[in-house]
Amino acid sequence: MALTVSSLKRKIGNKLDARVIYFLYEGKNTEPLFIAPFIENSNYINSQEICFKQFSKTENDEGRTSVEQLVKLAFSYKENHDNFKKNYDKIIIVFDLDVYKNNQLRMNNIISLGDKDIIFAYTNPSIELFLLLTIKDSYEKIIKPNEKEILENNFINGKRFVNYLFSELTHINSKSKKGEVSLLSNNFEIAIDQEKKFLNHYIDLASFKLTSNLGYVFEKIKNLDFNINYFFTFK
Q1: Is the Cβ–Cβ distance between 98 and 153 less than 8 Å?
Q2: How does DSSP assign 16-66, residue by residue?
Q3: How many other C-beta atoms lie within 10 A of the C-beta of residue 103?
Q4: Nearest 5°: CA angle at 53, between 88 and 129?
Q5: Residues of the chain falling short of pLDDT 50
Q6: CA-CA distance, 91 to 134, in Å (whole number)?
Q7: CA atoms lying within 13 Å on the CB side of residue 45
Q8: Residue ranges of the alpha helices (H) in 111-187?
Q9: CB-side neighbour CA atoms (13 Å) of 166
């Protein structure tokens, strides 16, 4: 198992001893093409105390998309690279919860797979829910009226409903290599605000609930707070 690493360069720069935040994505196109431009071009996170890098999976590992496999890749990197500062640097694993089919027990067990160096960033059903949040007032006008269909996650014209809804509204193919989804990174903060107001971010409440903690994770990083709370019961 192997990962390649690339730096996400911000205008602000960073200190030589900065904490490194690595991103490891489930998907090959959508997540990196959306998240990387936000980090590089936005002033949302303006601390020089941290720097950002992202992993790319090698050809042999491209098929490794389950959380379990992603965690193994993360641990393999941690154990085999001396430049990773354990108990300090962080690996953020970005993934969708739809594969768990609203099985709450299985979702609860995800967190136990990691350790203090790993941060889990998830959406239910998928990243397209967060992409929809980049549209102003989209929760009340678009998402809430279609909540039942989004959570049922059935196919329409070969796409999961939330992906179909997103593409119909934006005329963007979120899975495309062309990178059109990167245009939405300019509205990332709109999505963060709507997520905070309207969505669940606790993994132990994610079953049959519109869920995202991606914005929550970014807000915590902005505040240099790496104590991520995944469970409502421990609030």
Answers
A1: yes
A2: TTPEEEEEEESSSSHHHHHHHHHHHH--SS--TTEEEEEEEE-GGGTT--S
A3: 12
A4: 100
A5: 235
A6: 24
A7: 29
A8: 127-133, 138, 147-152, 161-170
A9: 25
Overall residue count recorded for the chain in this entry:
235
**Residue written as token pair 């990174």:** 185
Q: What is the pLDDT of residue 235?
A: 46
DSSP state of 71: H
Helices (H), 86-176: 104-110, 127-133, 138, 147-152, 161-170
User: How far apart are the C-alpha atoms of 233 and 211, rounded to whole Å?
Assistant: 16
Every domain of the chain and the residues it spans: 3-229
Contact criterion met (CB below 8 Å) for 89 and 14 = no
pLDDT at 227: 96
List of E strands, 68-210: 90-96, 118-124, 155-156, 159-160
Q: Cβ of 34: how many Cβ atoms within 10 Å? A: 26
160-218 pLDDT tens trace: 999 999 999 999 999 998 889 999 999 999 999 999 999 999 999 999 999 999 999 99
Question: What Rg do the C-alpha atoms of the chain give, in angstroms?
Answer: 17
Structure tokens at 189: 């903060």
